[in-house]
Amino acid sequence: MKAGVTAKPKKAAAIRFGWFVSNLVVRRPRLLGALLALLVVCCAVVSVWRLRLDSEVLNLLPDRFSSVNGLIAYNKTFAQARELTFVLWREDGDADLLETHQQEFADALAAQDWVTRIFYRSPLETQSGLETFDRVLGPLLYQLESAEFSEALESLKPEPLAARLENLKEGIAGGSPKAEVQAAFDPFGLAARALAPMQGGVPIERGQPLASADGKTRLVLAVTTNKDLDALTCKRIMEQVNAFITAQRDGWGDSASEVGVTGRTPFVAEISESMRSDVQITLASSAILVAILFFVAFGRLSPLAGIGSVLLIACAVALAFGGLLFGALNILTVGFCAILIGLGVDFGVLLYARYQQCLEEGDDRANAIANCIQELSPSILYGALTTGLAFLTLILSESPGFTQLGVLIAVGVVVCAFLMLVVMFLFVRKPSTPRWGDPLYRASLALLNRWQMGPRLPAIVGLLVFGAFLALAISPVPKLPFDADPRSLEPTVSNAGAALRQIEKGMGRVGEPFIVMMHSDNASDFRADWVQMHTHLTRLKDEGRILNFYSPAPMVIDPAQFAKNSTIARAFFEANPDFTNQLESIVRDAGFDAEALAGGFAQVSRVAELAKDGTLPDWHATLPGESPWLFLVERYFALEPNLAVGFVTPKDKVDSPQEAAAVRAMIEEAGVPVVLTGWTFTLMDLIPWTQRELVLLTSLVLGCIALLLAISYREWKCWAIHLTALIFAFSGMVASLKLLNQPVTLLNVLAFPLVLGVGVDYGLHTLLSIRGAGGDMRHVAVVLKSVLLGSLTTVAGFGSLAWSNNPSLTSLGIVCAVGVLWCIAVTACFVLPMYLWTHPASRETPSDEEPVVLPRHS
What pLDDT digit, counting tens, does each position of 796-833 carry? Predict the structure, then answer.
């Protein structure tokens, strides 16, 4: 600033801080650079040592909800998470050719080294399923009532068994297909007895059909070899999967059937790839837009590079701190740290604009640095603290992801403000003025002059206009829409999502079944709870209150019944010590080859082994890894004991939290401890929480901001104007979302407290500058220009999310951009005229006060 330009005296602390930084930058730049390098190295070491990235979207959700914890447990403890579902269909509807292609596809898929096992038809129709059926039959047979179990054993005695074999022989001789199947699959009658309880509850097809009723849609299931479900592993698996699908379709030539794949693995791979692409596109488009705006305002780009360097260091510090505090950071939370860039650019632009003005008014570099820091450090530091504390209120959100975000941005914005004040001038040298005469500064000065000449009318107009939007925001009509569609979490272009919807369309499914999860402390309670639930679900289906259900109850082993039947079986085999030879003799006498009835002998052998062992069998340990029966087991049973799920399809599609609560109440009528979950149910369950969080977090942030603004201003009129402006800006954003029919989602609910935390700085910088300007609007115009430019760059950053491939990120960007626009509009069209109207002395240099010349640094 030129000698003779007046202002109110600066506090001694600000003066000393400005001189200290100027000395450090101008006289000891190497020391400052070394300290900065040391900070970067420390951040890198901490990040490598502690920081891990978590790609689980569920970890962003509040963990006090049983539906959220249930969904997390389902993804972690059930092997089905590693399962791929391939869907094959034909547009021409040729069901016979599709069946041929399904067989060829399954055979080729089974030969892949990244596949553990496949499933595309009933296990009883596959060689592997028949060979391992005895391992299923044994435990099931031991679940029969003791009388039925005794009858099953008695049927193995010579007379009844000989009669059965004679009937089978006559049937086969008469050409009966049923007799041939029974001879191969159930020669001794044990299988029919064991499978009888499963009818209607656990279909042999795995609990869901593998082909549509018309045969025009078919499924092939596969379990992959990968043990982890991190983004990198899923991406590698999907590269092999996609290559395999392409090769198969090429082999079919012109008659190729359509093939899609869905499941957790393809969704994780697509979302991670989409996020990477979104980040690249967003950063590139945002950087281009910011560079254009900066060049228009200042005529050069090199200072922006310096500001960007400081921003990157601030982000590194925030991430290192997050690594130390949390260890693992959600990748979406890290992505949101781009907010720091928008906030930090504001600080950098503000400092650079004032630095440029000081140089143009005759200061040398040392004095320009000292003076702009003296003038702007209070508003920058107050703004950083206000924004940081506002974001810290996210700790109360009950969401681990929101907590991480709040802490990271709070730390990052304070560090960013400090580094901008201390380090930025290492990277920024002498600037130049644009040849076109700085249009943003001219527009800012013209606006200020207009408001200064007659602030009353624009203040009243602004009060009325923004008040009208406030009325619309709080009005119950129209309502602010809430969106809980799981598709909002998918990429816009999602092959996995398209395959899932093709399955729903081809198989005639309506929506996603709800998951009923139950866990017990011991096997006895586990059995009793599931039997009670199975009975209840059967009654609900019979009454027409649910459409369908699948339950693992028939496969949940009852320890007491197993012990009883083990005693009966041991007594039977001890009474017949040479039972195997007797059985072979009966078979020979009936005219059968023992090898032809090998399946029956294996079944009897398994029954005898279980009786001898006496240990309660575990399904995962009982079945070999390649057995297709494991698909049936893994659909219902977790890898940990006494944890299983069933599936309930509601009568009607659930579209609201009230309908979801009604389904929960209906299931809980069973009177057993249960967790109801599933993506659709969980998102519906969280809508009330989202609405509460919107109100709670916004209120907390606004309250925190109100307190800090009171400390910053220490003057009630200024405080009231700024707080009213924030309410107007928030109301304008809500009203705009209503008019645009832009829904609130679990992700963009963050935008509401976020916009308040970001937008408070605009009014703070403007009011603190005008209070200290002494009637000279040139300094205020520089600050207003910087605020306008900062807001435009922030809007550009958020607006670039419109090109995102993720609907939730797109929605978040739109909401944030709209909110920031309202913040700057309220600052320019309400805060300024209202302050000038209520503070007449600010429109001219006070005559009763001796002009003070800002001290020069030497």
Answer: 777 777 777 777 778 878 888 899 999 999 999 999 99
Q: Can you tell me which residue has the tokens 């402390």? A: 521
Check if the beta carbon of residue 761 is closer than 8 Å to that of residue 383. yes
Q: Is 54 helix (H, G, I), strand (E, B) or coil?
A: strand
| Rounded distance between C-alpha atoms, residue 640 and residue 617, angstroms | 14
pTM assigned to the model: 0.77
What are the beta bridge partners of residue 675? Answer: 517
CATH superfamily of 12-50+268-485+683-843: Multidrug efflux transporter AcrB transmembrane domain (1.20.1640.10)
Q: Return the structure tokens found at 508.
A: 């005639």
pLDDT in tens, 259-282: 999 988 898 888 877 777 776 777
CA Rg value for the chain: 36
pLDDT of residue 337: 59
Burial 689-702 (b: 16+ CB within 10 A, else e): bbeebbebbbebbb
DSSP-assigned beta bridge partners for residue 221:
85, 119
Cβ proximity of 222 and 86 under 8 Å: yes
Average pLDDT over residues 462-490: 86
Element (H, E) at 682: helix 679-713
User: Which regions of the chain carry the CATH code 1.20.1640.10?
Assistant: 12-50+268-485+683-843
Q: Could you read off the pLDDT of 346-356 as tens digits, one per residue? A: 888 888 888 88
Parallel, antiparallel, or unpaired: how do β-strands 52-54 and 328-330 relate?
A: parallel
pLDDT digits (tens, 9 = 90+) for 121-176: 888 778 888 888 888 888 999 989 999 999 999 998 888 988 988 888 888 888 88
CA distance linking residue 685 with residue 654, whole number of Å: 11
Distance CA 306, CA 301 (A): 9
Torsion angle (degrees, nearest 10) of CA 191, 193, 198, 204: 20
The residues, any chain, with a CB within 8 Å of residue 511's CB and separated by 6 or more, are: 504, 649, 650, 653, 654, 680
Alpha-carbon distance 261 to 84, whole Å? 7
Burial of 345 (0-12, 13-18, 19+ CB in 10 A): buried
Q: 594 phi and psi, to 5 degrees?
A: -60, -35
- DSSP for 312-331, written as a single string: HHHHHHHHHHHHHHHSEEEH
- For the stretch 280-287, contacts whose Cβ atoms lie closer than 8 Å and that sit 24 or more positions apart, written own/partner, are 281/800, 281/803, 281/804, 282/338, 282/797, 282/800, 282/801, 282/803, 282/804, 283/338, 285/800, 285/803, 286/341, 286/796, 286/797, 286/800
